[in-house]
Design brief:
- This protein has six helices and seven strands; from the N terminus they run ββααβαβαββαβα.
- By secondary structure, the chain is of the alpha/beta class.
- A five-stranded parallel sheet has the order 5-4-3-6-7.
- Helix 2 packs across helix 3.
Length: 188
């Protein structure tokens, strides 16, 4: 991806490549890069999930339906269930991520492209974390998620922030990630 530059917002720290890469270029770039997680991160993510769900005002013990789109290791979906918010459905394109979610004990796992999958139900809470920035047409994808919401449902889109302390929870992959990003820039 040497023909691309990464631009970072000086206000929020969010980064974006320019121009947008093709689907093939994205697949090549993210080969063996999509899934990096460890059970060691579970306490950190559970604490993050507890704060997040609380700030969103999600009521516990109401048997809500959650859709975790591009859920990585599955910790947020599992935390949703363990904290008694309801039942989660986990969907991810990466089969290794789905295997990890299965090991956590998540029952509803879909190994598919969420943009192409026909979901049979609506959801009270949809979480899409660190995913939309990778899509060629995020607007179309967001509209699909909105249509999957139940009445009064909540959609949470989280984009990565290069200055986030969250990256400290993944020290083993942080250096490799930074090097890959650095080399993909025009100065690398």
């Amino acid at each position: 991806m040497g023909a691309y530059s990464i631009f970072k917002c000086t206000h929020c720290g969010t980064a974006q490549s320019c121009p947008k890469p093709s689907l093939k270029e994205l697949a090549d770039f993210y080969d063996s890069f999509l899934f990096r997680t460890s059970i060691e991160n579970k306490p950190f993510v559970y604490k993050s999930a507890e704060l997040l769900f609380s700030r969103l005002g999600l009521p516990a013990n109401e048997n809500k339906q959650m859709l975790d789109v591009g859920g990585g290791g599955g910790f947020y979906a599992k935390a949703f269930e363990d904290m008694k918010y309801g039942e989660s459905t986990y969907v991810d394109l990466d089969p290794r991520a789905c295997e990890s979610a299965m090991k956590l004990g998540i029952k509803n796992i879909i190994n598919a492209d969420a943009g192409k999958y026909d979901f049979p139900i609506s959801y009270d809470f949809i979480m899409c974390r660190h995913l939309i920035e990778h899509l060629i047409n995020p607007n179309l994808f967001i509209m699909k998620l909105i249509h999957l919401l139940s009445p009064n449902g909540q959609l949470l889109l989280i984009c990565p922030n290069g200055e986030s302390l969250e990256y400290l929870a993944y020290p083993k992959s942080l250096l490799g990630r930074l090097l890959k990003i650095y080399k993909s820039n025009s100065w690398g």
